[in-house]
Design brief:
This protein has one domain. The chain has three helices and no strands. Helix 2 runs antiparallel to helix 3. The chain starts with 16 loop residues before the first helix and ends with a helix. The chain is an all-alpha fold.
């Protein structure tokens, strides 16, 4: 039986490679996610320390995810 070369199941990006690189360089998705996190998950009765801690933890999580994503 002839072995086939491994093929990816999907194309990550094609003709929009430059647009995709700019999108990740500006961290657009992270900014939108942070805005929605603050809007939907921060309690109105929380004190400032708890709010800052929650936002800091969310930013750290997003930063770690962003580091795993490598544009080739």
């Amino acid at each position: 039986m002839v072995e086939q070369a491994s093929k990816s199941s999907h194309k990550r990006y094609g003709k929009n490679k430059a647009k995709c690189a700019r999108y990740y360089a500006k961290s657009t998705r992270s900014k939108h996610k942070l805005r929605n996190f603050i809007k939907n998950n921060i309690g109105k009765l929380w004190d400032d320390n708890k709010v800052e801690n929650a936002i800091s933890n969310f930013k750290d999580m997003q930063y770690k995810k962003h580091q795993k994503h490598a544009l080739i």
